[in-house]
């Protein structure tokens, strides 16, 4: 048996599936969209803090050098508070807390928010660009319509006036 604060857990399943992936996201405080993320595969322990030897390094005055730790035990992740400013989940200070996928937690009462995702589950907005691939033919130009629009624009008064101004400017530039 292993103890985390008030939680007692067996150590039968200390090691996660070697393919289990964990994504820790630093969230924008206003929109709660990820601004930075850290990805881990096959880990049983992930450290969070301000020091450069932490797995998740967060530079913030509310974050202790060694602030928190995620430990995989009994087929789930446990968030353990190690820092002076504590860890909050749902605005409640916790010493240890079993995390569900997508759970948000805060480092200190005024510190940054983080979110944990597992096994490739990603929150909305974590992709830089995401699009479906379409056959190229869907993007074909209507050549007849294109030619008609070019003729209409080139024959218009506004375009003709611009062309005349450009000629005048070239003549002035060449004569000086």
UniProtKB/TrEMBL annotation:
Domain spans labelled FHA: 46-94
Transmembrane segments: none
One Pfam family recorded for the sequence: FHA
PROSITE patterns: FHA_DOMAIN
Highest rank taxon of the organism: Bacteria
Gene3D superfamilies: 2.60.200.20
Protein name: FHA domain protein
Organism annotation: Anatilimnocola aggregata
Highest classification ranks of the organism: Bacteria, Pseudomonadati, Planctomycetota, Planctomycetia, Pirellulales
